[in-house]
From TrEMBL:
One of its GO terms (cellular component) is extracellular region. SUPFAM superfamilies: Invertebrate chitin-binding proteins. Residues 1-24 form the signal peptide. Keywords: Chitin-binding, Disulfide bond, Glycoprotein, Repeat, Signal. InterPro entries: Chitin-bd_dom (IPR002557), Chitin-bd_dom_sf (IPR036508), Chitin_bind-dev_reg (IPR051940). This is Chitin-binding type-2 domain-containing protein. PROSITE patterns: CHIT_BIND_II. It comes from Anopheles maculatus.
Amino acid sequence: MLKMRNHRLAVYTILFTFVLVTRAQREPCLGIPDGVFVNDFTSCDGYFLCLGGVPTQAQCPPGFYFNEAQQLCDFPQNVFCHVCNQQTGVQLFPHPTNCDQFITCSSGISFVGNCKPGETYDAALQACKSEFRVDCERFRCPDVDNPNMVVFIPGIQSCDEYFICQAGSPIQRFCAPGLHWNREAERCDFPELAQCP
């Protein structure tokens, strides 16, 4: 009986969270004071200005991402931004560089999750497991940029996704429509040449 009540409570909590997140995505200025900027979760450089509950869409200059906490356009390495390919449901992905983290996409809104100390995210099981039971070999961004060498990391959620390392952080990018990331050539390429796994 207690187990069934806990299960029902967990289901209701998940549904409530899903409804709130979905509504926030469709009505980004709902409950937001006038003059406050909020994220556009479909674009790292996009944001909305809220006035009277009405969102006015805007975009940061090229090369900058919107930082909601600071209320300004900022360097990408200072902002966590991961654009979710699917705008509905919940998806889990391994973090591109940290084995003890994962990315959750919920109704198109992403956030980073952390495994408990001593655990690593298992992409196949979509759960954190003992680090001794998970073989995690992720690419790492160098702490210091080398201006003579660009470091790329393959994508984690789709064939057209890849990351560029900038100031020690992976910055999400996408190939043009119809192209896939070629891991060997480190460039966007025709799907038959990229051979996405």
